[in-house]
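Narrative of activities, Objective 1.

The group set out to show that a structural description can be obtained from nothing but a protein's sequence at a throughput compatible with the screening campaign. Below is one input-output pair from the validation batch, recorded exactly as produced.
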Amino acid sequence: MTQLSVETHDGIAVLTPQGRLNMVSARHLKAAIAGVVADGTHRIVVDLGETTFVDSSGLGALIGGVKATRQHGGDLRIARPTDDVLTVLELTNLDKILRPRQDVRTAFDD
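Output recorded for this entry:
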């Protein structure tokens, strides 16, 4: 099962899933995003640097996070996707919505 760490710095939550982001672990990511949003943090970066695989459930959790944060005037950004994850994002055209960032620290610098 994927490990998931959550840290908050300067009003931005950084969620780092490790391993496979699939049907089982996507539920944990979704719950973590919902918890962060409920606690009042509406800017989230999901650091995919340690994510080795993502399936449709994982993509759904990310898109659900975008929707949840934007409803509160925030946003969800992704950073450091691995090559395998980036390939899935490009094949599904979700790289246009999630627009991968090179670095967690600068994900909200635009």
